[in-house]
Amino acid sequence: MIIQWRKSSYSGTANDDVCVELGRLAPGDGVGVRDSKNPDGGHLTLTSTQFTDLLSQLKQHPER
User: Which residue intervals define the domain DUF397 in the entry (predicted)?
Assistant: First the structure.
């Protein structure tokens, strides 16, 4: 399966030093998260529940 990576809509400015891409992995395998500046450096694999929890935490604490 080829992973279709999607870059954050907040990426693309001149000062992008923290950019991530997300990719839907094979059905049941969750979501991949990788550094958009180092796409060959591997990715973090999160279950769908872990990814939802991560988004919830980021929304509650945007300054982190």
Answer: 4-59
**Which token pair is 12?**
């693309």
Position 64 confidence tier, pLDDT thresholds 50, 70, 90: low
Sorted by sequence, the CB contacts under 8 Å of residue 55 that are 6+ apart come out as: none
Give residue for tokens 């500046």.
Answer: 37
3-state secondary structure 1-64: CCCCEEECCCCCCCCCCCCEEEEECCCCCCEEEEECCCCCCCCEEECHHHHHHHHHHHHHCCCC
